[in-house]
Amino acid sequence: MYLSSISIELGTDILDHNNRKFIAENVDRERTKNNVEFKNISLEEAYHILFDNALQRYNDRQKRADRKIGNYLEHIQKSKQEKPFYEIIVQVGNHNDMGIGSRNEPIAKAILEDHMLSFEKQNPYLFVFNATLHMDEATPHLHIDFIPFTIDSKRGLDTRVSMKQALEKQGFRGAGRSDTETMAWLQSEKESLASIMERHGVEWEQQGNEREHLSVLEYRKAQRSKEVDELEAQVSTLKGQIENLTTAIETVTVLSTDEEFDEEYKLPVPQKLESAKSYKERVEEKFEKLKAFVKRVLVELMQVRSENKALRAANQNFAFENFELRDTNRNYQKTNRKLHNQLTEYRLLRKVLGSKNVERLLEEASGKNQNGKKITHYEKDNHR
């Protein structure tokens, strides 16, 4: 089994480059004839195919002319909520193991062709209107341009553009900014591509930086999960304290209003001609019981007040810790987005400039020569 990496990333949506109406410097014109065109429908035509009927139904419902939409594509292009279309770039390996002219070039081509054939079956809510396999650059790679759509929408057109809704229709759910529907879908596409690779005798080798990036995310998710468990334990403790406090209050209330209590501790009215000594002897036992009861109630009341004060303090601490946790989580999300952007930029540089050129630029930027020694200003001048 041969090991090779996988790259599936959102592209820059440059259709002229994909269809070779614009030729970049890294394109070998002699090999352009080897490119494979799977689909080539104009974006305008694709929008007519997908949305004309829904647009007609929407406009028929409008009573005011200014609410009608003349051109849905132009409407989406002006919108800040949705993109007119999306693109992914799919690649197996790199120019070192799957490059053009290598013995594995036919394998890379076959894998990407199979992936293209399975893409539309696996993504029924992503309408592919342009797809090309480039065989005229350093490494075979696939450009897939698609329009995400949803049906039975209650807002706007009943069939409309929506990446989020399209992916949710396909079973992908987001769990925040660090784990969106798109991220989950891209991971699923990689796993699907890995299955195709295995049929061709190639095993997915996850690169070090990708594993490191994933391990950072997994660690932070584990930390968040641990903190959530601790907070839930605190909530459970506070609930227990509240229940105990409620029980104590109910007990005091019952004791202070119970009719049997009133009769048991109620001092009798002195009888006619009864001496003070006789009355004292008759009520002394009840009076002692009453004093003991009042003392016990006062003690319980003080305990309740103390517990209530501690409970309020604990609740305030809990609220503060929860606020700090949310703030920390936001910082982690920002760091995660920054890591993701850096990883995307690094991969793009490697794809455009080549791995060796990127490594050389990094060495120059860090001020080191090929032997790893610090380059002085004098040495830099001599190198020139």
Describe the structure.
By secondary structure, the protein is of the alpha+beta class. The protein has two domains: 2-205, BirA Bifunctional Protein, domain 2 (2-Layer Sandwich); 222-353. The protein is 59% helix and 11% strand. It contains eleven helices and eight strands. The protein has helices at residues 15-18, 43-61, 72-78, 105-122, 163-169, 181-199, 208-257, 259-265, 276-353, 355-365, 377-383; strands spanning 2-4, 6-10, 36-40, 86-92, 126-134, 141-150, 160-161, 202-204.
Number of helices: 11
Oligomer: single chain
Q: Using only CA atoms, what is the Rg? A: 37 Å
CATH class of the largest domain: Alpha Beta
Distance between the termini: 46 Å
Helix-strand pattern, N to C? EEHEHHEHEEEHHEHHHHH
Number of strands: 8
Q: What is the CATH T-level topology of the largest domain?
A: BirA Bifunctional Protein, domain 2
Please supply descriptive tags for the structure shown above.
384 residues; alpha+beta; BirA Bifunctional Protein, domain 2; six-stranded antiparallel β-sheet; two-stranded parallel sheet; 8 strands
Task: Give me the secondary-structure topology.
Elements: E1 2-4, E2 6-10, H1 15-18, E3 36-40, H2 43-61, H3 72-78, E4 86-92, H4 105-122, E5 126-134, E6 141-150, E7 160-161, H5 163-169, H6 181-199, E8 202-204, H7 208-257, H8 259-265, H9 276-353, H10 355-365, H11 377-383
Helix pairs in contact: 4-6, 7-9, 9-10
